[in-house]
Amino acid sequence: MNTEKGLVYPLLLLFLLQVSTCLDILDQNNTIKDGNLLLSSGKTFALGFFSSGNSSNRYVGIWYHQVSELTVVWVANRERPISGTSGALSIDSDGNLVLHETNGSFPVWSTNVSSASSNDSTTARLTDSGNLVLVQDFSQRLIWQSFDYPTDTMLPFMKLGLNRKTGLDRFLTSWKSLEDPTPGNCSYRIDPTGYAQLFLYKDGVPYWRVGSWIGDRWSGVPVMITPYILNVSFVNDPDEISIMYGTVNPSTITRTVLSASGSLQRFTWHDRDRQWIEYWHAPMDQCDYYGKCGPNSNCNLYIAGQFECTCLPGFEPKSPGDWYLRDGSAGCVRRGGVSVCRSGEGFVKVALVKVPDTSKASANMSLSLKECEEECLRDCSCTAYASANESLGGFGCLTWHSDLVDTRTFATTGQDLYVRVDAVELARYRKTSSLSRKATIAIVLVSVVTALLLASSFSYRLVIKKRKDRRGHNPLMSDIMNPTHLDGSRSVKDPDDGPRGNRDVPLLDLSTIASATNNFSILSKLGQGGFGSVYKGVMDNGTEIAVKRLSKHSGQGVEEFKNEVRLIAKLQHRNLVRLLGCCVEEDEKMLIYEFLPNKSLDAFLFDTTQRLTLDWRKRFDIASGVARGLLYLHQDSRLRIIHRDLKASNILLDAAMNPKISDFGMARICGADQIQGNTNRVVGTYGYMSPEYAMGGIFSIKSDVYSFGVLLLEIISGKRNTAYHPENPSYNLIGHVWELWNEGNCEDVIDESMGDSCAKEEALRCIQIGLLCVQELAEDRPNMSTIVFMLANRDVVLASPKRPAYVVKGRYHGGNLSASNGTASANDVTISMVEGR
Ligand SMILES: *[C@@H]1O[C@H](CO)[C@@H](O)[C@H](O)[C@H]1NC(C)=O
Ligand SMILES: *[C@@H]1O[C@H](CO)[C@@H](O)[C@H](O)[C@H]1NC(C)=O
Ligand SMILES: *[C@@H]1O[C@H](CO)[C@@H](O)[C@H](O)[C@H]1NC(C)=O
Ligand SMILES: *[C@@H]1O[C@H](CO)[C@@H](O)[C@H](O)[C@H]1NC(C)=O
Ligand SMILES: *[C@@H]1O[C@H](CO)[C@@H](O)[C@H](O)[C@H]1NC(C)=O
Ligand SMILES: *[C@@H]1O[C@H](CO)[C@@H](O)[C@H](O)[C@H]1NC(C)=O
Ligand SMILES: *[C@@H]1O[C@H](CO)[C@@H](O)[C@H](O)[C@H]1NC(C)=O
Ligand SMILES: *[C@@H]1O[C@H](CO)[C@@H](O)[C@H](O)[C@H]1NC(C)=O
Ligand SMILES: CC(=O)N[C@H]1CO[C@H](CO)[C@@H](O)[C@@H]1O
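That is the input. Now the predicted structure with 2-acetamido-2-deoxy-beta-D-glucopyranose docked in place:
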């Protein structure tokens, strides 16, 4: 009897839960019991009771009603869960929303608005943006809303920030763990002190500084990757200081979550895959962590992908011993024995930075940058200045009067910070900057000459700017580059590695490789590339490997080579070929990769019979995989690798036809001198090269985006970019696609051999994405995260592509030459210096 009862009861309960009542509104006459739901009018959101993880604790929360995965965006009683299913949410006689555990007992949770108790009754309703609102029936006055009490999720149209009138401060607080809604240790809020900033705090101290709103973005987020998804409105007036996001496309389902571990993540719901896709997260790299390098110091990422602390101009390490041991946290102090007060001092510009913490800075929006300098110079306590708002070419004045904390450099976008230095330091910088100005002029001249050469002859002579060797200038850097303990050891180890990523790269003997490849016999040879030959090998244990034997004349030293390999070997992603080891012996340098039995993408795509095996779905998956691999190289890996030679023959396919990018990081491994290779050409393949790269040797992540665009168009069309000239021999595939695009005949581009498998609309979208990638101006091209997002989300409205650039043999079809070279100068040269290493 007993056992039967025990069985029937849960079944009954289950039944009750399934036939749960759904309400539209909650008023004095009804109650939401455990199992009932309150739905928003468009049924987008639901409010009800839920449990999380294995716990039997019940919480009242709001979640997406139409998303198949239970995704809670708000919790009422996060601090006081209900232990059984006896909870009930109702409106009490005061007009407040109250949650009772059992009838009549003291409420577990309440909206607790004192002014609710009036002669006017109230009604609670859930809006389609996920806001639970409590409104007086007669006056229609909003007396309470859940958007004012956010938990860990920020939804579109929800405001974060301070209402200066009422003192209400809205901020996110993480859950305690993935399964426990109790408030955790992380928060995300606006700090209004000084020049207001947005912060992510962990355990009450700053963890990541998002920075100030500087007109079009946050100072600590170099690229707003969101314009396709979210638009931001920032308000700072006497009434309030707040931010709010709106969705550009109303049908996009997106949320921003502060995870229990302190990561701010943005997701969109991808209906086809029935999953949330993260399209952005922060903090993203070492330099994002607040004050990583201590005061008066600057954190850089770009050299060897590691972070590097450098003292700001005029400062020196406070604790040189720690500094050499790569602990920069003590920061820097002003060089001893110098005066920066009325003794010929001045300012040195530090470009492309996230300006220091402004919570103690003063702002005066009515000053220009020039006036700002004068103001700062006049005041001996002023340590630095910068413009406060980057809109309209920069205006407003920020001045710092104490330590400069949490400065970092970005690769592509950043502000200029002017740091006060003494007269001697100033003279030193004046000298170097006039030198570098000369260098810039030389580069522009070289580019123009190159362009002329290109235009007048059919031969390509590509010039790569000689990178300045910055090594040795910095103690940390030399430590990375000359790790003495490597000598004689049989494996290359990263001294910086934490316990997690501690992976040694095996150093293999030349004899082992020789025997695996039959002494590099011609029969084992798989191919020949710009960097050397590739052989197939079989190790004694039967493992198949691919051996890349680099051509001998590389300007790089052995240790340097090993270091690069060590770094590259750490990149792991399902869309990258895995580097298994290396071999350095007798002026031989070899890289050992996993062997992939299927051939490269070009062998399928451009072969009349093989291409039949590539239906649309496969092609789309290959393109998406390549995009994700490239995104990882650009953004998610610590190294920020620019591939520079992305093309169909560098995309290998595994047994399941998953794409794997090969040859990434070759420019690093081989050193800059190797870039020109033995064929007198820049690394990179004609047809895949962006104009700024082909013409001026200027490469950036946007050059890879260009190559990706070409690849995408090739995948859709099944035709090589270079080999395409039906009517007009001077046109390549891009020119052809662009022509059809303008005529509205893009369907003609799609490879017929895909037959009915082709989802025409999706293919047309991909063509548009491809055209966006090959736009003439690098800044117009989307970055890889946007591309991944656009590929994954069919609802995203795509921009209209502008005219592409197509470089064909001997001719450059695009805007006028001087303009494209002129705009490429200052910033892009910086990019090549910064990212080229
Ligand atoms: C509740 O029910 C009573 C009696 O049916 C009705 O008079 C009253 O208007 C209802 N109140 C609300 C807020 O609907
Ligand atoms: C939840 O229960 C399952 C099965 O009993 C167990 O494997 C899992 O580890 C539990 N999860 C947590 C967070 O306790
Ligand atoms: C309501 O607010 C008062 C004071 O602000 C507080 O003492 C009380 O505990 C609150 N009640 C609930 C249910 O939160
Ligand atoms: C409630 O009382 C206020 C005055 O205290 C009055 O102005 C208002 O009309 C009343 N509302 C209702 C619905 O009776
Ligand atoms: C939160 O902070 C407290 C005190 O600083 C600490 O004991 C606890 O481990 C932290 N919890 C998490 C999840 O980090
Ligand atoms: C920056 O300037 C622009 C243009 O005047 C303005 O719209 C924006 O609100 C300003 N931002 C701040 C934070 O002052
Ligand atoms: C975002 O863009 C949409 C459409 O362009 C617009 O309706 C909305 O007001 C904008 N929202 C914000 C917060 O700027
Ligand atoms: C900003 O600078 C102007 C010109 O120097 C000055 O008149 C004004 O008082 C300053 N404003 C603030 C808030 O300091
Ligand atoms: C009026 C009413 O239903 N009271 C119940 C409240 O809950 C307790 C225990 O859960 C019951 O014993 C009461 O009968």
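The chain has six domains: 1-149, 159-284, 288-421, 425-473, 480-594, 601-834.
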